[in-house]
Specification:
With 455 residues, the protein is an alpha/beta fold. The protein has two domains: 246 residues, Aspartate Aminotransferase, domain 2, CATH 3.40.640.10; 134 residues, Aspartate Aminotransferase, domain 1 (Alpha-Beta Complex). The protein is built from 13 helices and 14 strands. The strands form three sheets. The protein has an eight-stranded mixed beta sheet with strand order 1-9-8-5-4-2-3-13, with helices on both faces. Strands 7-6-11 form a three-stranded antiparallel beta sheet, with no helix packed on it. The chain has a three-stranded antiparallel beta sheet with strand order 10-12-14.
Length: 455
């Protein structure tokens, strides 16, 4: 075997050999990937999936041939490209959206923030209708999430409850743009500014959504102090596992990097030494003068970096990303048009005002007298994959059992009436860019049939 390999690469430089391998990989990917069979009714329609071509696979193999493994040149390239797309100064690639949320929140607990540091027992306004790892970091740290209700059919925070949620302990608001629909950024940011609160935008389900903020069209995730993304395969774009944290604030960026990279003070990339030129000259904490800055820790950190192979996939995905956003919007509109005729039975989703959502999915809430579960069951039996709005009402889950009713651990404003309705009556189906008109028409047909069956 080794003899055969040596023969193939005889007289070739390493670069020439690499190019030859990549050419073969490209041909392999074109021939064996992305060959969808003709759609037949009853075939599974996933709510989301990866959309890619040979470029992602070539990049992945290129990175694996390099065998750098940890973050490296592709990570730098991906962070730069994502920051450029978002129009933001700093971006950190991490190993998941949940890690991104953890870093975003924990960065606000850094002592480097002085008066504005979030301390244990401080409160963070959020919602209960959503994904668990938007709120888990708040509880894990020992801060107190304050849950307010959401509106239907936008599925975002009910801003009329903000005043009631506010206390002298409130330090931040942390919210997701639900399934791509931007929450009311103008009002929420104004409330934050008036009350000296941080704003974290969990942008994991909304990359590419825009909002008209202060006379400018801004991408979601870039209006608040920090934004986060997930690149898990069903998301707007993928790196396999992966996520990102972004900000325009250089201090928050420095803290995020420190917490991501073991808590260290030094900002050298993996494998880099003495970027600051002061590696052995300064004094930190109670360490001896000149202690190696590479091993000085300003935070109790983690290692949440992703690999260069993941970043390599991201570099190819980001080039295609604008076309994904357009397709998501188109699919959403087609579904909405096709289901208009049953709006007496189903509440169809509405975008927030001043926004242009890059939809993650198409949310449906059944009206009184209609059973959500029987529609969901009908669709699943017909091959149409469905999803709940994640936790529905996170405070109802077993993870709350240990702290249930303890208002020093979490608070609820009002009755969470719509949140509970979502838990009972809402589900969603996909709009991902890999869907075509035929599949969407089939989903519409199945939903209409399911309603006929029940009437
Ligand atoms: C709103 C929201 N935040 C965070 C996450 C977590 O992302 P990840 O799965 O990459 O950890 C998700 C995952 O789907 C999500 O929907």
């Amino acid at each position: 075997m080794i003899r055969r390999v040596i023969k193939i690469f005889k007289d070739k430089t390493e670069e020439e050999a690499r190019q030859e391998i990549l050419k073969i990989v490209e041909e392999y990917a074109v021939k064996y990937h992305n060959n969808p069979e003709e759609f037949k009714e009853g075939d599974k329609i996933a709510y989301a999936s990866r959309v890619y071509d040979e470029k992602e696979i070539v990049n992945l193999v290129d990175s694996s041939l390099e065998f750098w493994l940890t973050s490296g040149r592709y990570t730098v390239e991906f962070e730069e490209k994502l920051a450029k797309y978002l129009g933001i100064d700093y971006c950190s690639f991490v190993n998941s959206g949940s890690s991104a949320n953890l870093l975003a929140f924990l960065s606000l607990t850094s002592p480097l923030l002085g008066e504005r540091q979030i301390k244990k027992g401080d409160e963070v306004i959020t919602v209960a209708a959503g994904f668990p790892t938007t709120i888990a970091p708040i509880i894990q740290y020992g801060a107190v999430p304050v849950f307010v209700d959401v509106t239907i059919p936008q599925y975002n925070i009910d801003i009329t409850q903000l005043e009631e949620a506010l206390s002298d302990k409130t330090k931040a608001i942390m919210l997701a743009h639900t399934l791509g629909n931007p929450f009311s950024l103008t009002e929420v940011k104004k409330f934050c500014d008036e009350n000296n609160l941080w704003l974290i935008e969990d942008n994991c389900d909304a990359l590419g959504s825009t909002y008209d903020y202060d006379g400018k069209t801004k991408l979601t995730g870039t209006v608040g102090d920090i934004g986060t993304s997930s690149f898990y395969p069903p998301h707007h774009m993928t790196t396999g596992e992966g996520g990102a944290v972004y900000t325009d604030n250089p201090l928050l960026h420095k803290i995020v990097r420190s917490l991501r990279d073991w808590g260290r003070d030094c900002q050298c990339q993996s494998g880099q030494d003495n970027l600051c030129g002061n590696r052995f000259t300064k004094q930190y904490g109670e360490l001896p003068l000149g202690y190696d800055h590479k091993y000085v820790y300003s935070h109790f950190g983690y290692n949440l970096k992703a690999t260069d192979m993941q970043a390599a996939i991201g570099c190819a995905q980001i080039e295609k990303f604008p076309s994904f956003v357009e397709k998501r919007k188109e699919n959403f509109e087609q579904l909405k048009e096709g289901l208009k005729c049953v709006s007496d039975k189903l509440i169809l989703p509405e975008k927030e005002k001043n926004s242009d959502p890059s939809w993650f999915g198409f949310m449906i809430t059944v009206k009184d007298g209609i059973e959500r579960n029987s529609i969901v069951e009908y669709l699943e039996n017909k091959g149409v994959q469905t999803r709940m709005l994640f936790a529905g009402n996170i405070t109802k889950h077993p993870c709350f059992d240990e702290i249930r009713g303890d208002t020093t651990k979490y608070r609820i404003v009002g009755e969470l009436t719509n949140t509970n309705k979502i838990m009972e009556d809402t589900f969603w189906i996909g709009v991902y860019p890999g869907m075509n008109r035929e599949k969407i028409d089939y989903m519409i047909k199945c939903i209409l049939e399911s309603l006929k069956e029940k009437s």
